[in-house]
Amino acid sequence: MARPRTPLGAYGSIAVRRRGDRVIAETRIRDADGRLRHVRVTARTSAQAQRVLRERLVNRPTFGGTKALLAQSTFADLVEVWLADLAVQQLAEGTKQNYRDQVRLHVLPAFEPYTLVEITTGRVEWFLKSQAAISSSRARQSRTLLNLLFGFALRHDAVTRNPVAGTTPLRHPKSQPRALTLEQIAAIRTAAANWRSEPGLPGPKPDGQVRDIIEVLLGTAMRTGEVLALRPCDLDDRPAGMVAAVTGTVVQRKGQGAIRQDRPKSEASIRRIPVPEFAASVLRRRSIGVEEARTIFASRTGGPLSPYNVRRTFRDFLVGADLGDSGISLRWYRRTGATVIARGMGSDAAAAFLGHSSTAITEGHYIERDPTVDPTPAAHLERTLRPVTPDDALLVQVAAAQEDALLAALDHETDDDPVS
């Protein structure tokens, strides 16, 4: 009967012998490439030699250029190798930094004491429930990262199953209301117009940029970073109305501040959309005297506006409108535009307008691109959301088919992450 093959990573008995004042410990191991190799160490004592040899056997390298991951590897080892792999992935830098921050702050501290084999479904379940008690968003992000980490471990044969797979699905709390009301829009507009207008206030007078940004957000349903990235060269002002090309986004980078990224978050996000007149008039006025390649909304030094500063000023507007505790954010402007278009034209039209991939993938790969831009979405947005005599007929009607799924996708997106 043939002798059974030595398993990968297994080693034979350790032979110990003395040579002069040193002790030699040696054995043979079947390495990750399937080859048997002789491993030898020397030390002052027999116990020390055997300990050093065993450490060297455990930490044998793989032959693919990365650190070996085994069932007995620590969770910190997995994170280290996964972060090295993340660095070479074709993802937006903001997405990578977000993953690094989430792992460092929330995931690694919870599992750092364990080896991979010790991280069970029950331990992951307990962790996710503790995260959900703090924030449903944090729990979802932690689950996503654990799935990425253990998926990586599976591909490297360090574990036999993903312990995240058997955990209880996370509940998605419903966010209400879904869109801004015309009363809320009017109150925020008034607060924005009056912000820091009292006589005698210290500091420079407001330049009105954030007030104008929210008008463009309302009229285009763009992401905040997409509006901040608009340049005069992205606008095509035609007799039939303005068309805006979405070609980039503004993101915040550690150590760099706000920068214009010359691509939006996904291929589907590269689009041309009609702009209703109330938003087009803002862009025309703001573009006067601005260089073609500079962002229309800019800091005093000429660089892009920081999304953080825009959000901070917007929160001041909410306080002035007595909406400080309402939970409203700039994202609600995108929800509102999505709701108007979905109810006026259907959810597929809204998805394409918003830069989601539902219909854009088919159009981009199987249908010749149509250079014309349908003005209908802008007409719906103009009639519903204009500052003077707005018509709430679309906002009060029954939700469109698949509208909830469309708006739920908006709630989970960021400027950097790919749209699923």
TrEMBL record:
**What PROSITE patterns does this protein map onto?**
CB, TYR_RECOMBINASE
The Tyr recombinase domain extends over 175-381
Query: Which GO BP terms sit in this record?
Result: DNA integration; DNA recombination
Cite the Gene3D superfamilies for this sequence: 1.10.150.130, Intergrase catalytic core
What are this entry's molecular-function GO terms?
Answer: DNA binding
Q: Which UniProt keywords apply?
A: DNA integration, DNA recombination, DNA-binding
In this protein, which residues make up the domain named Core-binding (CB)? Answer: 73-154
* InterPro entries with a match to the protein in the record: CB (IPR044068), DNA_brk_join_enz (IPR011010), Integrase-like_cat_sf (IPR013762), Integrase_catalytic (IPR002104), Integrase_recombinase_N (IPR010998), Integrase_SAM-like_N (IPR004107), Tyrosine_recombinase_XerCD (IPR050090)
Cite the PANTHER family for this sequence: INTEGRASE_RECOMBINASE PROTEIN MJ0367-RELATED (PTHR30349:SF41), PHAGE INTEGRASE-RELATED (PTHR30349)
Can you tell me which family this protein belongs to? Belongs to the 'phage' integrase family.
Protein's UniProt name: Site-specific integrase
User: What species does this protein belong to?
Assistant: Nocardioides zhouii
Q: What is the lineage of its organism?
A: Bacteria, Bacillati, Actinomycetota, Actinomycetes, Propionibacteriales
